[in-house]
Amino acid sequence: MSPDRREDEVSKQIKDVYFKHCPLCHSSDSIAIRYGFLARSPTFTCSGCKAKWRFDVNWGTMFSDVANLGWVMLIEDGVDERGVNLINERHRPEFWQKMSLKDKPQLTDKPQALQLIKEKEIIREKEVIVKVRCPYCRKLHDETDNRCPYCGG
Questions:
Q1: pLDDT tens digit string along 38-88?
Q2: What contacts 24+ positions apart, CB below 8 Å, involve 95-98?
Q3: Which own/partner contact pairs does 62-71 have at CB distance under 8 Å and 24+ positions apart?
Q4: DSSP character at residue 68
Q5: What is the pLDDT of residue 108?
Q6: Rounded Cα gap, residues 81 and 24, in angstroms
Q7: Are 109 and 34 in contact (CB under 8 A)?
Q8: Distance CA 77, CA 25 (A)
Q9: What pLDDT band is residue 113 in, cutting at 50, 70 and 90?
Q10: What CA–CA distance (Å, rounded) separates 24 from 18?
Q11: Quick check: 2 and 24 in contact, CB under 8 A?
Q12: pLDDT in tens, 85-96
């Protein structure tokens, strides 16, 4: 198998299987892949949050057509610092895939409306205050707020 074809195979694994959505900002179809000189230090970047990952590929041998994604490591955190505690940690692609599906805003039946996911309840003197996570800035605010007090979303 030619090197270009192997790179296409790995790119498809990244974009269509493991990183359909950015694990940090959950934007879809935002991954740009860059292969370095002789396929060394291949990286991909999210155009949404600007996070950058380095990945390892098991290219197989000249007798094998197999090219599989090995480990993936976050090397630069996004603009919102959601992955700051994961920088320089190697993880299997499945770890990032699960992370990209976790805490992703769920869509309702209405096309433009985002369903707010109730995050936690705080009880104060028999009054229940429900907190929801803003789908834009990801911060918690009271369910009674018309807009997010942090970003206005």
A1: 555 688 888 888 889 888 877 665 555 556 777 889 998 888 788 888 889
A2: 96/18, 96/19, 96/23, 96/53, 96/72, 97/17, 97/18, 97/19, 97/23
A3: 65/1, 67/1, 67/6, 67/7, 67/9, 67/10, 68/10, 68/13, 69/10, 69/13, 69/14, 69/18, 69/93
A4: E
A5: 42
A6: 9
A7: no
A8: 11
A9: very low
A10: 13
A11: no
A12: 888 998 888 888
In this structure, what token pair is assigned to residue 96? 């990032």
Q: What is the full DSSP assignment across 81-134?
A: -TTGGGBT-EE-HHHHHHHHHTTPPEE-SSSSPEEPPEEEEEEETTEEEEEEE-
What is the per-residue pLDDT across 4-30, written as a single tens digit (0 to 9) for each? 666 777 778 778 877 888 888 888 878
Pairing of strands 68-76, 52-58: antiparallel
Contact indicator for 22, 86 with CB cutoff of 8 Å: no
Q: Given CA atoms 92, 100, 53, 66 in this order, what sign does their dihedral have?
A: positive
CA distance 64 to 100: 31
| Long-range own/partner contacts, residues 138-142 (CB < 8 A, 24 or more apart) | 138/80, 138/82, 138/103
Q: Which two tokens stand for residue 50?
A: 């600007």
